[in-house]
Amino acid sequence: MSYSRSPRNARKSGGGRPSRFEEPEDTIALLESVGPVVLPPEMDSFDELDLSPVMRRAIAKAGFTKPSPIQASLIPYALEGADVIGQARTGTGKTAAFSIPILEQLDSLEECRDPQAIIVVPTRELADQVAGEAARLARGVPTEIAILSGGKNMNRQLRQLENGVQLVVGTPGRIHDHLQRGTLRLHKTWCVVLDEADRMLDIGFRPQIERIMRKCPRNRQTLLLSATLPPVVRRLAESYMTEPTVIDCCRNEMAVDTIEQRYFTVANDRKVELLEQLLERENPEQAIIFCRTKRGTDRLHRQLSRTYHGACGCIHGDLQQRERDRVLQSLRDRKLKLLIATDVVGRGIDITTISHIVNFDVPQDCDDYVHRVGRTGRMGRDGVAYTFVVPGEGEVLTSIEQRINKELVRDSLEGFDPVPAPVAAVKSEEEEAPAEARRSLNPMTRKKKRRR
């Protein structure tokens, strides 16, 4: 397989990237304004990738049979040491796409006791999931992985860092805490991964992310994974990445093809009644019901627990991490049928048995809708998503449909007459703020061959 991308050590200075990002009218032009765009190649087997025998055995044991588009695209560039922006929807194997090339190139703990790679994620749940996936793929070679996230025992993290780690997976806030304490040294870190970058920036982690990037060597490799590329993500890429290649696995399909997407129009005071009848009709294998607020999540959980008793769980940001972990494990063990949650689990839940998503409250951001819906239909499985729309939320519904380039199908239940949902004109986007000055980075060169 041939790739048009030249190795990093062959880059020329003063490339042709614009000094600031424009806002092109179409998505393809928007992506090309960030860097050269690559579409996923067809690949039938992991044998077509330049991977070590021990990694191929770990991949087979993990149950992977064929590379997903993002894996087939990203792994070769990452192994070359290139900076990459991967745009792919949730449930497409992004974690393995960046974990495999990192694990293939880690030096042993005896050679380097400081973190060689760092993976930054938006939530504690996603940190646990990514670290678990990396540990599965590291099978066969001793690999020290540290999880640095809030809600976890700080003393344990300190001991782990002191004893030496090769790979760090964590949330921006806790990683930043360790940097301030001086307990995390990133001077030997050669790869930084920003997973779910749009979500991290959306919830206000930009200052912490920028400090993390500044603490890493300037000649590092940077991999940025994001389901969407809003202006703030593109500005971050321009400031901290060197001529990134953009891998587009979302062209013409922002929503998962295998997910059936429907909506109900309903009065606000009848939403609970509608939900109960919908669950009775659908009888889902497992379902996640998204609410907008923590208080609303608790209230709905109490109401549904009367019917579902121990088969109904609840997660939001005010719960202790131990309780959140317990509920998620119960969901994975299929002890729970329903999970009532805020957007804290809009990303980071990778459970293939989630058959239904219900947006009890319409998300205010259409990108949040994409990620909520992505909790079902994982890795090509079928799924269905329902959204409850109350009068006055027609504009949000229209924005969602424009975002995914698909109309949601109106559904109905006996006794629930459709309620008009007025559709307002979509507001034009505000003019993009000037981009920050581009930070030039030196090409990264690896001194050694892969250790496997």
TrEMBL record:
<dbReference type="InterPro" id="IPR011545">
    <property type="entry name" value="DEAD/DEAH_box_helicase_dom"/>
</dbReference>
<feature type="domain" description="DEAD-box RNA helicase Q">
    <location>
        <begin position="44"/>
        <end position="72"/>
    </location>
</feature>
<dbReference type="InterPro" id="IPR050079">
    <property type="entry name" value="DEAD_box_RNA_helicase"/>
</dbReference>
<dbReference type="Pfam" id="PF00271">
    <property type="entry name" value="Helicase_C"/>
</dbReference>
<protein>
    <submittedName>
        <fullName>ATP-dependent RNA helicase DeaD</fullName>
        <ecNumber>3.6.4.13</ecNumber>
    </submittedName>
</protein>
<dbReference type="InterPro" id="IPR001650">
    <property type="entry name" value="Helicase_C-like"/>
</dbReference>
<dbReference type="GO" id="GO:0003724">
    <property type="term" value="F:RNA helicase activity"/>
</dbReference>
<feature type="domain" description="Helicase C-terminal">
    <location>
        <begin position="274"/>
        <end position="427"/>
    </location>
</feature>
<dbReference type="GO" id="GO:0016787">
    <property type="term" value="F:hydrolase activity"/>
</dbReference>
<dbReference type="InterPro" id="IPR000629">
    <property type="entry name" value="RNA-helicase_DEAD-box_CS"/>
</dbReference>
<keyword id="KW-0067">ATP-binding</keyword>
<keyword id="KW-0547">Nucleotide-binding</keyword>
<dbReference type="GO" id="GO:0003676">
    <property type="term" value="F:nucleic acid binding"/>
</dbReference>
<feature type="region of interest" description="Disordered">
    <location>
        <begin position="421"/>
        <end position="452"/>
    </location>
</feature>
<dbReference type="GO" id="GO:0005829">
    <property type="term" value="C:cytosol"/>
</dbReference>
<dbReference type="GO" id="GO:0005524">
    <property type="term" value="F:ATP binding"/>
</dbReference>
<dbReference type="InterPro" id="IPR014001">
    <property type="entry name" value="Helicase_ATP-bd"/>
</dbReference>
<keyword id="KW-0378">Hydrolase</keyword>
<feature type="domain" description="Helicase ATP-binding">
    <location>
        <begin position="75"/>
        <end position="247"/>
    </location>
</feature>
<dbReference type="Pfam" id="PF00270">
    <property type="entry name" value="DEAD"/>
</dbReference>
<comment type="similarity">
    <text>Belongs to the DEAD box helicase family.</text>
</comment>
<feature type="region of interest" description="Disordered">
    <location>
        <begin position="1"/>
        <end position="25"/>
    </location>
</feature>
<dbReference type="InterPro" id="IPR044742">
    <property type="entry name" value="DEAD/DEAH_RhlB"/>
</dbReference>
<dbReference type="InterPro" id="IPR014014">
    <property type="entry name" value="RNA_helicase_DEAD_Q_motif"/>
</dbReference>
<keyword id="KW-0347">Helicase</keyword>
<feature type="short sequence motif" description="Q motif">
    <location>
        <begin position="44"/>
        <end position="72"/>
    </location>
</feature>
<dbReference type="InterPro" id="IPR027417">
    <property type="entry name" value="P-loop_NTPase"/>
</dbReference>
